[in-house]
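NAD(P)/FAD-dependent oxidoreductase
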Amino acid sequence: MKKQIIIIGAGPAGLFTAIQGAGKNNKVIILEKNSEPGKKLLMSGSGQCNLTHSGEIEELLNHYGDAERFLLGPLYSFSNNDLLNFFRERGIEFITTGDGKIFPSSFQARDILDTLLKEASKQGVEIKYNTPVKDIGFIKEDNIFLVKSSENTYQADIVVLATGGNSYQTTGSTGDGYKLAAKFGHRIIEPKPALVSVNISNYQFRELAGISLDDVMISLWRNGNLIKRWQGDLLFTHKGLSGPGILNYSRYIEAGDIIKLRLVDIKNEAKLDKKLIDLIDKRGQRLFKNLIKELGLPERLGLKLMKLTEIPESKQSAQISRAERMKIGDLLYGLPLKVKERGSFMEAMVTAGGISLAEINPGTMESELRPGLFAVGELLDVDGDTGGYNLQFAFSSGYLAGKEINQRTN
């Protein structure tokens, strides 16, 4: 008799698991709550589908926060090159941008989804739409899962959770899989918005919205302790901060934290003060606002810092007192901004948190607590940086789960 495989979710992770897991000795059914598949995939890269990122696997591993060790299995088993070859063999070509992001040459996410659906159909995968899963049970005596939808109950030898996380909730990613996994004893790391901007308390830079800074040194402080330090590109918004330097590290940021921005490329405060003194000595007759621009700051940002330190725009450099120089030097070296909140799940590109990685086999994506139960994609406690890393994990985890299912049933 054929084994019945139930996959919950028709996103990229679920579809790829189905494609890899299909075989003549099993029947693969995907249960999808929406009326159509891959809603979030179609939104990726603003509809252009940043599928993955170029580079060696060792480099890719650095873009998943603290999940690097777990990802050794999935990414080495199915790499970025393997993913590109899968689609190339089916007629899709790719373009790599200067920063390493890889898109289909058509810049159409629909082409990626259509290829997946065509391959799933070719493999005999059945997709049932408008079928939200309400519950999963398990009959120990028969070693059978009971997957309950709103209208039916399906028996399954193997179940794959591919429901996505809790971000972009309009696409159907509403955290359904967390409750299903928890029924089997899985610990759920608190889901939080990730790849998201942050709002700042008492924000005084609203008029600077749209100004970006390259390669800023950013440090994160909590209760007076340094949590993390990194460099990245930064964007001022109407409510706070965004840009890759914030998005990629938002997984670490909490409400109440202090973000400090080093606005100048100078290694310590003493050298910065010396730089200011030298500029003042050489250009004392110039307006101080023009001198500030020589440090590489956008004019509007320099003027804002002067306003915060109560230095008049009409003041000449030679008239700057030591106290004024020290005040503005403090802001230049470590502008402190208190985090009010991270953006919501409605804004987040991905979810941080999810099923604990300690309870998932990284070589198969099978549950360590319930044999026959698998979990793939964003439902797990894995969140990558912006740039194609999250889709890469969706496909890599789907590949491993599908491969294991195929070997077990065929």
